[in-house]
Design a protein that fits this description.
- The protein has 463 residues and is an alpha+beta fold.
- It has 13 helices and 17 strands.
- The longest helix is centred in the N-terminal third of the chain and has 23 residues.
- The protein is elongated, with a radius of gyration of 27 Å.
- The two termini are 31 Å apart.
- The structure holds 4-amino-1,4-dioxobutan-2-aminium adenosine-5'-monophosphate and magnesium ion (MG).
- Magnesium ion binds next to strand 16.
Length: 463
Amino acid sequence: MKERISDLLKRAPGPEVVAAEGWVRTKRDSKTVCFLELNDGSCLKGLQIVIDKSQLDENQLSVLTLINTGASVVCNGPIIVSGGGDQTVEMATTDVNLVGIAGANYPLQKKRHSIEYLREIAHLRPRTNLIGAIMRVRNTLAFGVHEYFNKNGFVYVNTPLISTSDAEGAGEMFQVTTLDLNNVPKTEEGSVDYSKDFFGKIANLTVSGQLEGETYAMALKNIYTFGPTFRAENSNTKRHLAEFWMIEPEMAFCDINLNMEVAEDFLKFIIKKALIECEEDIAFFSKFVEKGLKENLEHVVNTPFAHMTYTEAIEVLEKNNDSFDYPVHWGTDIQTEHERYLTEVYCKSPVIVTNYPKEIKAFYMKLNDDNKTVRGMDVLVPRLGEIIGGSERESDLDLLTKRMVELDLDPQDYWWYLDLRRFGSVPHSGFGLGFERIVQYVTGTANIRDVIPYPRTVGNAEF
Ligand code: 4AD
Ligand code: MG
């Protein structure tokens, strides 16, 4: 494997000639010497290349004039002690090879660009320090997810992306069809004849892998999914995407209390891993993106999460209703402003809220004895609000069927899901972590559109 710039920067100075490959971030040129800063996305810092122009022939000098910000180059030379600046080593060479030019119209010239502008050039934005660092943290968090579940005996299961059932029962799905929309086949009654469609029935992109995940938990005990999910919700916010990645563990023989313990332990594990392995990037975000981020994350890792029931949360929030855009009372859904009040002002830490009114939660959540609330749990964090949603599942066949009927869901459509309650049913629980939300949280990024390479939101699927 070739050494990357992060490796070269760690090298002890010596005479060995090594290759540095990358893209030019800056070029400083004088009559006698030229400095290139070369970056390959392996770390924030670039490698400084020092070129003694008095050693170059006419041809080499003319190549050098073509090397500008954005150009790709390969330089071969020894790593030496740096003569100045804040770097400790640099490369001294005259062996500079231009691989691909970038003209003056290269959109990422040296000046600072707004995050909104970078979104318009999403194909080039990974070449900036900010997006490069976010993507390295995203990568570390993804590995952390697999590491955590793997070391705790969870089986990684791939649930389908095309689904014929609505996992959240919320009707926010993107339909998948091969029917000719200009010539839709109709039944005798005049409705769309889906028997002619690709799957012979209505199919959608999945909103969650949970239901299929549950079937595997009922066999393998502890499983998790980690894949893309799709929601056609018309919410234009800083924390909603139409296509996002979700991590969904599901555990058999597990109640809501153990579920909360795992959620907290898991979140702390991956945040801690990022703090250790992405130290430099997180220091960068702490300085330029979200002041105090690093201390904030360390505090989260070292403090037990607070716990409240929904009813307690509403009592706290009601006292403060004057300051909310949407005042709350028992029965209303908790929105971002309320979540932030609970975490930032009241608890000053992440908080797990439980026992929500059944009316505002999904059909599969286990009903409490009060017949009014369900064993749902949301993990709320400062700055962002909801990061995890989960629950103990209804494991009683009759109660689950009854709830489906109340919510106008056809139990026939969920026959296989109900089978889990017919054959060897056990208490079981799970949760979903929105992957982009945790990347946002750990990088201090305000807008979710900047933590996924190509964001899909209402009215936007460019690239
Ligand atoms: O609370 P949600 O809707 O729960 C479920 O989907 C369950 N099936 C999870 C489970 O119990 N297995 O979504 C879970 C998490 C949310 O807490 C949030 O972090 C994220 O997914 N999420 C979104 N992230 C980005 N864009 C959206 N539109 C999101 N909707 C939910
Ligand atoms: Mg939720």
